[in-house]
Every structure is written in structure tokens, then in C-alpha cells.
UniProtKB/TrEMBL annotation, chain A:
<keyword id="KW-0206">Cytoskeleton</keyword>
<comment type="similarity">
    <text>Belongs to the tubulin family.</text>
</comment>
<dbReference type="GO" id="GO:0005874">
    <property type="term" value="C:microtubule"/>
</dbReference>
<dbReference type="GO" id="GO:0005525">
    <property type="term" value="F:GTP binding"/>
</dbReference>
<feature type="domain" description="Tubulin/FtsZ GTPase">
    <location>
        <begin position="1"/>
        <end position="202"/>
    </location>
</feature>
<dbReference type="InterPro" id="IPR036525">
    <property type="entry name" value="Tubulin/FtsZ_GTPase_sf"/>
</dbReference>
<dbReference type="InterPro" id="IPR000217">
    <property type="entry name" value="Tubulin"/>
</dbReference>
<dbReference type="InterPro" id="IPR018316">
    <property type="entry name" value="Tubulin/FtsZ_2-layer-sand-dom"/>
</dbReference>
<protein>
    <submittedName>
        <fullName>Tubulin epsilon chain isoform X2</fullName>
    </submittedName>
</protein>
UniProtKB/TrEMBL annotation, chain B:
<keyword id="KW-0206">Cytoskeleton</keyword>
<dbReference type="InterPro" id="IPR002967">
    <property type="entry name" value="Delta_tubulin"/>
</dbReference>
<comment type="similarity">
    <text>Belongs to the tubulin family.</text>
</comment>
<dbReference type="GO" id="GO:0007017">
    <property type="term" value="P:microtubule-based process"/>
</dbReference>
<keyword id="KW-0963">Cytoplasm</keyword>
<dbReference type="GO" id="GO:0005525">
    <property type="term" value="F:GTP binding"/>
</dbReference>
<dbReference type="InterPro" id="IPR003008">
    <property type="entry name" value="Tubulin_FtsZ_GTPase"/>
</dbReference>
<dbReference type="GO" id="GO:0030030">
    <property type="term" value="P:cell projection organization"/>
</dbReference>
<comment type="subunit">
    <text>Found in a complex with TEDC1, TEDC2, TUBE1 and TUBD1.</text>
</comment>
Amino acid sequence: MEEGVVNEILQGPLRDVFDSKQLITDISGSGNNWAVGHKVFGHLYQEQILEKLRKSAEHCDCLQCFFVIHSMGGGTGSGLGTFLLKVLEDEFPEVYRFVTSIYPSGEDDVITSPYNSILAMKELNEHADCVLPVDNQSLFDIISKIDLMVNSGKLGTTVKPKSLVTSSAGAFKKRQEKPFDAMNNIVANLLLNLTSSARFEGSLNMDLNEISMNLVPFPQLHYLVSSLTPLYTLADVNIPPRRLDQMFSDAFSKDHQLIQADPKHSLYLACALMVRGNVQISDLRRNIERLKPSLQFVSWNQEGWKTSLCSVPPVGHCHSLLALANNTCVKPTFMDLRERFTRLYKKKAHLHHYLQIEGMEESCFSEALSSLSALIQEYSQLDATKSMPVEDLPRLSVAV
Amino acid sequence: MSIVTVQLGQCGNQIGFEVFDALFSDSHCTQGLCSKRENEAYRSSCKERFFNEEENGVPIARAVLVDMEPKVINQTLSKAVQSSRWKYGQRSCFCQKQGSGNNWAYGYSVHGPRHEESVMNLIQKEVEKCDSLGGFFIIMSMAGGTGSGLGTFITQNLQDQYSSSLKMNHIIWPYGTGEVIVQNYNSILTLSHLYRSSDALLVHENDAVHKICAKLMNIKQISFNNINQVIAHQLGSVFQPTYSEEGSFHYRRNPLGIDWQVQPPLSRLPTLGKRSLSEQLRFNTSIANLVVLRGKDVHSADVAGFKDPALYTSWLGPDNAFNVWKTQRAFSKYEKSAALVSNSQFLVKPLDMIVSKAWNMFASKAYIHQYTKFGIEEEDFLDSFTLLEQVVASYCNL
């Protein structure tokens, strides 16, 4: 809802990739106000949005999925972005909606981000098929780690200079204090690996609709923790199995996650491993066997692994792994968000900015809060089953 | 006598290719260990059974390829063409763009009715090219969405449309520790429905074949290619022409017409190798067994061990329950080879496992909303569970 970023894209090296007719901009932005993004701009631009969506959809032989990419803490991405979700659901009910959401980190410079995030969460709960939460702190840590690797030039472990992880799209831009380009590159890789099996051949393909089918056991619980490896790669091509196994171990380490969470000590509802490159089914199975004992799965999904093998590795790497986990470890993130929200809301701080927008009432806030609380409650109930012994339920007895 | 193969989904198509390749390689093998005339008869019988002749002499597989997304079929077609020894018919495939999302309900209730006419037409065309139709061989996996859901739907249609023809479903049993999280649901839905419409279910377990690759073949890095090739090899050894009892110049035996006296069974092929009798059979009661012997000294082979009444049930003795087919022509350059197709309690344990896991998951209602979305209700699940519990109980009571 302001022109700066879009204009930059249209003048940058990828300008030919984007259709300049398929954009909507305004002048003043949403002022970090979810209500402005959702109610004001949503209402204003609804027709235009629909029209441009329909136009894009017409070009598709078979439309399977929408990717919505936004942040939760601001006004446009958060407000207008979630408004868009509802539009997509109404207009294209059979098409999947995958949302990549950047959640606000602890040290976040937008004061109203808790309000925006909670209001957006309600929409994500109700209208998204699948959400991949990402937070800036994790991305920053990953980039720092890579920088460390590159600068220290450790023996045997180097980052290939042209590899996808380190090349920055906006190379002409100065490296700022917060290197957003490099961080965004990580998220881009997430989406690349997510779609790799749909784009390339492999011995065990996995489409986007399979992600939703396998990783979302109950409609509300659709938040997936993602982790990517490798973040650095080995210089030699023939990688003996031991190093390959290291890639799998890394995927389950906190350092490689795109959100601050601790899945190993929480409960797994389901886990997907999307492998790219010269990896075969025996490698996959060996590693699952190896890692399984240290992970806790919910009682009704003890072998809850979804796997895919894509033959084509990412540029500059020999193989890679994307792990998507539906795990109760997202609960602390949501609880933290609720905490920050409550602190502001109790004092009614900045509330007037929202309530002065037509269509916004206090009930919007309380409803959003209870939606989040219900979600947290569901995760808590599952967590409670964690240490219970797994028993087989009595089966049907039939007359022979 | 010809067999029409229907390959469904990624698994079905990948395996189907290996099967035709194995059949072709074997039939053109020069070391048949038999007379030239014998070899010729074998080759032409195999050809008639599985291939069609084109003008320029390149054999075309009697197959229909079905998948709900294009990548695998394209790969399969081009692999065949690249081998330049045989190929698939240009218009023998049916393909969509979207896939079935590992959802049995989607494959069965959405893709099935939507594409029924197209797929059945393709099959019809293939049938018309056969002088005499031996039956259908349907290759599918249980864990996914297309093979399992659409495969079941098509099998039911074949039952309606070609009720007098034999149908054998080749089912791939998924790895115990997941390839697909909802594989147990997909499996029980598949099995319970196929029980009512298929004549025979030939099963290959990924776990078992994986072990063969690892332990017997010592392959270090096992790929799906390896696995599929082992499966194709086993199938080939059963499906290639064998003598009928009467004449020795006519390869008559219809592998699909294996006489199973009772309900559609689950049968299994253990390892190939030199002719040897495994002692484990003693702990496993069989309804019926078929041994296929090929190669040297085949007529003097001693199969007495298979005729032990202790192996069989009280109501079907070895005279009726045990069959042996012998062919002098060697398979795939093996001097001697044996294959065992068995309708026995081998599969009770795996079946029981799958039902158990599916039941546990069902009790928590996990993932059910993905199925009810497309018309498969909880009742349908319960029906499936009931039927399979009966199957397990029946086999246990042998």
C-alpha cells in the first residue's frame, strides 16, 4: 500500500519476471495498523484484487495452490494479506492456500505488532490451509552462522561462493546492519524446496496437496515448523554416507530452523522430509530409523513420516533436505505473542488507532484473543498425552 | 492369450515399466537352455501375451498408463522409447495435472467418476487388440492416492464391464515406517473395497523386497529402481509362459487363472534362487500353493516337500491345493529357478499391523476431515475395518 518496495522490484534485475499490470499499490501505506490494511484497503481494493486474481488464474491449466507471503507485525501484509485469504477462500474454494508468515521477533521495532499479529492469527486459523511461520531472529542467526563459516574458512567446510544460500538478489544494495536480503534468501529457499518435487522428477514425488493431506491431522493445527539443510556445503562431490547422515541430523537441530522452537522436546504430530539430490530410499530409511528414538511422536501417529525424493538438487549443492514438522513446539511462540498482546491490551495502549476505523470494535480483539487461546489449548491437550504410555486400543471383534 | 496391464499412479507406472522390460529381456534372451524351436515358441507366446506388434517391428506393450499428474508417465514413456527395444502405445496413457494428494477419497470419489469414461475407453481399446483376453493385471500401490483410490474404482468398473474376465491386482504394501502418513487409512480402504471386486491380490511388501536387496543382493545404496527391478524379476518368473499339462508345445497356463478355491486371497512371492524348500512353511498354513520351476532338470525336480499335508488345511488337501508348473526354458539366464506363489497365512501379520495402526489413528479421528471432505464418511471406514477383521480372523482360523 505504498510504492517504494514494488517500484524497486520493477526496476531491479527481476523486473521482467513480474507482470507490471498485475500489481496494486497505494501511496501512504497502512501505518502498521492491521485495521487499516484489512478493513480500509481491503474494502477499497477488493474489486481490483479479484479482477487481477481471476486474470492470473485464467492463465493456469490447473490451479492447485496460492502462496501468500507476508509479515504478521505490520499493517499491509498482516491486514490486507489476511483479507486476501478470505477472498481466495470464497473465490477459489478448491485451491490450497499456503501462507508464509514472518512473525515478529522479541526485539521488534513496531510497537503495535502484537495487536496486528493476533488479529492476523485469527484469520490464519480460519482461512489458511497451511502456515509456515518464520521469525527474523532465526533467520538472522542462520545468516550469522554462515558468515562465520565463510570468514573462518574452516577446513573442509566451505560455502560454495555461487550457491543459492549466499548469493544476494539485490547485490548492488549495501549490506545493512540487518541483512534482510540474505535472510529473505533463506525463506526463498524454503519455498523452492517445498515445490521442488512438484517441479522436478524424482522416484517418490510429493505435491503440495500432499503436504496438506499428510501434515494437517486436524483443520486448526496447520502450523508447520520448517528447517533447511545444508546451510553450508562440502567442497567435494562424492559424499560418503556419513556426511549425508549429518544432513539429516542437522535438520533436527535448532540451528537450522526458521522459527525459534524446540521440536525435539515437544510432541510431533507429523513430520515430512523432502529430500533433493542423489539420495536413495535406503539412505532415507536408515536416517529415519536413526533419528526416530530421540523424537516423540503422538500416540496415534507413531510412524508419522511423509517422505519425498526429488532427483534434482538445488544449484550449487549435491543434496538438500527440507523438514516440515507439525509439532506442539509452536505453542510457546503463540503464548509469547499472547503475552505481549495482553500487556498492551490491558492498558488499552494505541487501541484508539484501531477502533477509529470503521468496522473495528473491541469484540474483534477479544474474538481474536479467544481464537488464539483455543488453538493454544488444543496444543496443550496434545502435549498432555506426551508421557502417557502408548497402548493399542481394543479392536472390533467380529463373528467369523 | 493376452493380458492387459493397467498401471496406476507413480508406483504402478514405475513398476510397470520394469516388468515389461524384464519380460522383454527374458524373452529375447539367447541362453534359454533349450532347443531353438522351444525358444521360438516361448518368445512368441510371451510376445502375444504382453506385446502388440507394430508395422516396423517394435513391440508395443499391452498396457494402459494412468496417473493424475504428468511427470511419471512422461518419464516412463521416454524410458521405454530410449531403450529402443519396446515401447508403450502413444495413445495409451491418461494423465491429469493435479495429482490425488495421497487422498484415497479424492482418487476414488473425485477422479474416479470424473475420468471413468476416458480410462475405460483406453482399456477397451487395448482389449480389442487382443485375440483372446486372458485377463487384467492391475499394478498399484496402497499408500498413495491415485493407485489406491482410482485403482480401486477402476477395478470395480472392470468387474462390472468385464465380469467374465480374470482380474489380478498387484499391490505394493508400503514400508512399515511411513512413506505416507495416511498410508494405513488408504490401505484399509483399498483392501476392503478390492476384496469385493478383485479375483486375486498379489502382494509385494516394500520392507520384504528391501531386505532382499540388502541381504541377498548386497546392494549398498538401495534405490526404488533396485526395488522395482526385483519385483519385476519375481513377477516375470511367474508370468512368463509355462506349459499346460496336456501339450508340451503350447504355453497355455494363464497366470491370472491360478485356481484359488475360496475368497480372493492375499498371495505372496518369496525369494528366487536355486530350488530349495524353506522349513518355515511348517508354521504357516496354506490354502493353496503354486510352484513354478524353470530350467535344467525341471522334470526330475522333487517337489514332495510341498505336498506335505501338514502345510495345508483340513478341508483342502495337497492334491487340490498344490500345483506345479514346469518349463524347460530357463528364465533370465538362471540355470534353475523356482518361484512360489502362496495363499497362506504369510500376510496375516502385516495385515494385522496395518489394521491396528489405522484403528488407533481412527480412534483419535486424525485426518478424517480430509476424507469426509470428499464423501468418505466414518461409516465407510467402519465397514472397511469390519471386513478386514473378518479376513484376519478367517486366515487365523486356518
